[in-house]
Amino acid sequence: MALPEHDVADLGLAQAGVRRVEWAERAMPALGRVRDRFAAERPLAGRRIAACMHVTAETANLLRALKAGGAEIALAASNPLSTQDDTAAALVAEYGISVFARAGMDPAAYDRNLATVLERRPHLLLDDGCDLVNIAHLERPELLEEAVAGCEQTTTGVIRLHRMSAEGALRLPMVAVNDTATKRMFDNRYGTGQSTLDGIMRATNAMLAGRTMVVAGFGYCGRGLAERARGMGARVVVTEVDPVKALDAVMQGYTVLPMEEAAPIGDVLVTVTGNRDVVRAEHLASLKDGAVLANSGHFDVEIDLPALEAMAVEVRREVRPQADEYVLGDGRRIVLLAEGRLVNLGAAEGHPAAVMDMSFSVQALTVAWLAENHAELEPGVLEVPRRIDTEVARLELEALGVRIDSLTEGQEEYLNSWRA
């Protein structure tokens, strides 16, 4: 069999990748049902898809479902540290999908791979952070001539899309997969919470019980992280700029402080905001000796890395895997995890497959909906149709063997009549 076009580290890793993908598949029953349906109905026949996503076993199972539906797919990595080279090899050699991703690639290779998948002149874009959409609009607009729609699955990416739409720059209807109830509740809250702690503990082997963790940002991701850190015995301090979210944190029993007061008492500080410069030079200057810095927001801009480099008199690279130690002039040591990139993917394996089962089932069904209905949609940021979110929740409950009640005719009538 001729292999699809690709740029991966080592095709010899393909069998290890297959084992990894099949292991993840066991925990993704809803997506498996979607794949079976797609194989029978072929809703994506003749559609070219360009994807910028984390190259993980869970992503591989999403792409397998899309290919079963008839799609031709080209995948580039959305983060240089999250690529699993064995998964990339398996996608090419075993599943016939074009992949352009290597673990640890430099920024130039990252940009080149995004351009490569766009040169396939895709009909549909699947983005994770809005880099693919951004480059297509700013640098290669001619490659959007055949594009009809797309999906974005991160908070950061949705924020960028809304700004593009507000300025009249967005040329495509883009669905904010991130904003569905299942995505926010399970992926952002439970997935990010667990996988972020997983990355911190793999990189440091630190005890969290009895230590102070500062969680910057109390959205769904920050909330999940705070819950799990408290469950492991950490004292959790929350920083926020949104009064409503800050009040929510207070009502849940967390200490809420501005970063200037939180930074000096934190043993572990984690940013999860989707914004830049959350931990700045003045905060870095007040950190205690041995403080650990991690980021679980999409881009590596939440911690002021140039300021940290400038303050350090010595940098000890990889004192542990994915842990760099910065020694300041007064002898204090600051430990940065995963180069300030997503710690849950840079130092661990990202969300559990069971969590991604729901997110990627929503993504797959949304792609099929876009392929069928794009002509009726206007450029802008759209919501996932409610029925898709509900269907995925139903599929997941069925896979778990959970049964729920249904409304009686009388209840339906009562809810739909103001005269009752």
Account of the protein in words:
- This protein is an alpha/beta fold.
- It folds into two domains: 224 residues, Rossmann fold, CATH 3.40.50.1480; 158 residues, NAD(P)-binding Rossmann-like Domain (Rossmann fold, 3-Layer(aba) Sandwich).
- Helices cover 44% and strands 17% of the residues.
- It has 17 helices and 15 strands.
- An eight-stranded mixed β-sheet has the order 9-8-7-10-11-14-13-12. Strands 3-2-1-4-5-6-15 form a seven-stranded parallel β-sheet, sandwiched between helices.
- Strand 8, helix 10 and strand 9 form a beta-alpha-beta unit.
- Helix 1 packs across helix 3, helix 2 runs parallel beside helix 3 and helix 3 packs parallel to helix 15.
- The N and C termini lie far apart (65 Å).
- 52% of the residues are buried.
- This is Adenosylhomocysteinase.
- It is an enzyme of class 3 (hydrolase).
- It holds the Pfam family AdoHcyase.
Summarize the structure.
By secondary structure, the protein is an alpha/beta fold. 44% of the residues lie in helices and 17% in strands.
